[in-house]
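Appendix C reproduces, verbatim, an entry submitted by the partner laboratory led by Prof. M.T., so that reviewers can inspect both the input and the predicted structure.
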Amino acid sequence: MESVLSQLEKEKADMRLGMDKVRDESNLLRMVVLANMAKIADPIPNKLLTVTAYTAVELTQSEDQQLLTASLSKPKEGAVAVSRDLFKQGWVFGKKVYIKNHGVFVITDLMGSSKNKSVDIFMNDHDRALQFGKRQIEVVLLDV
């Protein structure tokens, strides 16, 4: 009988140790969450912006003109221009943006100074750019 009681006491002590370990892990997790609450509560900010499309046709002034973006690169699919207000907020050349339902693009160009809260997608096809039109879309500046 004594050995059974001894065994039960040992099991009880082991259970306490196990519960203490779970409690410690739970407290540690709680501390990590609280310490990082600002990051958790403030996900990557997205903005509802005016999104349009442009092509080299809008940029061309003569047949033999070498076209360059404001970042001194050739305009190409997968690139966007941003309005100057966004540029001043850190939406700078080389950063990537996600345009909801359209994909990820690299910022390589600036829009005219009259545009605000706007992104312009470069497209090779003039008809496709016209068809795209002007839309209000969620855009996220990616931190990569």
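The radius of gyration is 28 Å. Additional entries are available on request from the coordinating office.
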